[in-house]
Every structure is written in structure tokens, then in C-alpha cells.
Amino acid sequence: MPELVAAGAVLWRPPVAVPVEARVEARVEVAVVHRPRYDDWSLPKGKPRKGEALPGTAVREVAEETGNTAVLGSRLGSTRYPVAAGEKTAHYWAARSVGGHFIPSEEVDDMRWLPPADAAELLSYPHDRVVLADIHLAASVTGTALLVRHAKAGKREEWQGDDDLRPLTAAGRRQAEALRALLPLFGPTRVYAAPVTRCRQTVERLAADLGVPVIDEPLLSEKGYLADPEAGRRWVIEIAAEPGPPVVCSQGGVIPDVLRRLAATSPYRLAVPDDPPSRKGSFWGLFLGTDRHDSATGQAAPSLLAADYYDDPLTVYRPG
Fold first, then answer.
1. Residues in contact with 33: Cβ distance below 8 Å, sequence separation at least 6, in sequence order
2. Eight-class DSSP state of 311
3. Is the pTM for the entire model greater than 0.70?
4. Count of CB atoms within 10 A of residue 24's CB?
5. Cβ neighbours for 93, distance < 8 A, ≥ 6 positions apart
6. Of residues 53, 60, 140, the one with CA closest to residue 314
7. How does pLDDT run across 130-174, given as a tens digit for each residue?
């Protein structure tokens, strides 16, 4: 029996008008859709097309069912439930609406923007309500960074020249093309790379698509980072806080330590292992917020709210 999978999102937006004194819960609205075929209310989701990565499925299904363009945020987990053909696993993301409007169709004839508590009451299925439970945290993100390990570039010991000049292999170029399709789903607006050829080559076509330069960042090269790891950690936090998520392409000697340091200062219990994975061509979605204060300064202190790992872009979340 083929694997039955789907992908979708909790699409959210700030309400049109919210009093300053309103509770946090009132500052978010989420979209729920009505499907006449089943006469149910659900979260927007659907089946992937052949070869389609599931994050792309989630954005496409949101657009088709709600008319809204979405920018992905953190993962909201997955649900498993029975269907006529067996059991289906649905993967979900938080997704911020960046525009659009709903047009009824045969598949979805109604959509409502509701506070999460009201949406939970309207939803027809308990598994959808479980997914919805973490939307307040996901919507409180104030900074995002996409931390990419450079794509495949062969073996260091087989390269005869300066290691900083070692280029991508054919497999690495395919990974870079897959990243070129995946990373824009998260709405990046800036691109940085450690000043080594394989890092720059991994993201240069993505940068061209975005119409921005690839900015060299020595602090995130292995040489620069190992000289001052704390400066590298602070730089990631600072760059994530600026408008528009950055893509940052770095190296295997950097990324796991950045994850460990960010997770160590987070007040949340994050699923970041002691030895964070960082395969070539993979990336981490880092989502930070300022919901705590530094005890020494009394100022808002950004902390890691969620960290999502995406493995090899040629295979991850590509069923069929």
C-alpha cells in the first residue's frame, strides 16, 4: 500500500484591529475552511504532487483553498488518522498570510478567520485541534534565520588546491537547486555565506532569484567562528532580528555548535540533540522571539523558540 501523506498549515494573521490592552490570544486569527464534499471544517491541507516537497505542498494547498499567499514558519507536528484507503499522515506548519483573498470553489465553499479558541470549537476533528494548540507560540516569532550547510563538494583529502576554493560537485549542484526551491517558502530577503567557494555556490542562484547579493560573512566560516564562537552566536541572533529572514550558508564545523549555544540559552524544551545533525545540503529553520527579559539588563532578550531540521533537500519530504 502506498504511503498516504498530506501537508497543510495553520494559516494565521494579526486581526485587522486589536485594542492595545487585548490579550495575546486576541492578537492572532487563524483560517479554517469548509469542505462541502465532507461537510466539515478543517485546516487547509492536501496531497503532494509527484516529487513535490511537503513544505511546497503546504504553501500550494493554502493558496488553492484560501486564496492566501503564505510564508512558512515553524513546524507544528503531524497527525495520523484513518481514511478509506488506510491511514494518512498529515504534516503541518505555521504559516503567516502575506496577502490574498478567498474565492469559493467546489472543493472549499467557505473560509473563516477566527481567534484560535473559536477555531478549535468549529473544527470537526480532534487531530486538527491538537495541531492548532501551539499556534500562539509559533505566531510570536520575531526573528527567523535559515542556517544552511553547504551542498556536497567532494572530499577534502581528494582536493589538491586551497580548500576554501573547493567547488560543488554535480550532486552538490543538484542539492543547491533543490534548496533554491525550498528556501523561498520561508520568505527570505537576504543571503549570507561563509567566504568559501562551496558556500557561495550553494546559495548564489537563490540570491539571484531574490535579486540580492551574496554577502560574505567571515564569522560563520569555520576559521572565523572557531576564533570567537560567542561572537558568531550573537551575530546569528542580530541578523535574525532584522526585517526579512536571512539565508546563511555555513560549514559543518559551525552549525552544530551554533545550535547548541542557542538551545542552551532558550527557556523552552527544544528537540535539539546534543550533537545536532548538519548533513551537506541540509538546513535549520531557527525561530526566535523576545518573550523573556535578561535578568541583568532588564531588556528583552531574544531566545530560540523553535528549531526545525530539514535533511537532504533532494529526498526530505518527497514521497512518491
1. 41, 42, 43, 44, 65, 66, 108, 110, 111
2. -
3. yes
4. 10
5. 7, 8, 9, 10, 55, 58, 72, 73, 74, 75, 76
6. 53
7. 999 999 989 999 999 999 999 999 988 888 888 899 999 999 999
Strand pairing report for 283-289 and 143-149: antiparallel
Residues 286 and 51: their CA atoms lie apart, in Å, by: 26
Q: CB burial class (10 A; 0-12, 13-18, 19+) of residue 233?
A: buried
Cell of 126: 480532534
Spatial separation of the C-alpha atoms in residues 36 and 237, rounded to whole Å: 45
Instruction: Give how far Cα 12 sits from Cα of 60, 96, 114, 134, Å.
Output: 15, 5, 9, 12
Going by C-alpha positions, the residue among 162, 154, 37 that lies closest to residue 107 is: 37
Q: How many CA atoms lie within 13 A of 116 on its CB side?
A: 24
**Phi first, then psi: what are they for 225, rounded to 5°?**
-70, -45
All three cell numbers of 36: 462541502
Q: What is the 3-state secondary structure (H, E, C) of 27-38?
A: HCEEEEEEECCC
Report whether 262 contacts 234 (CB < 8 A).
no
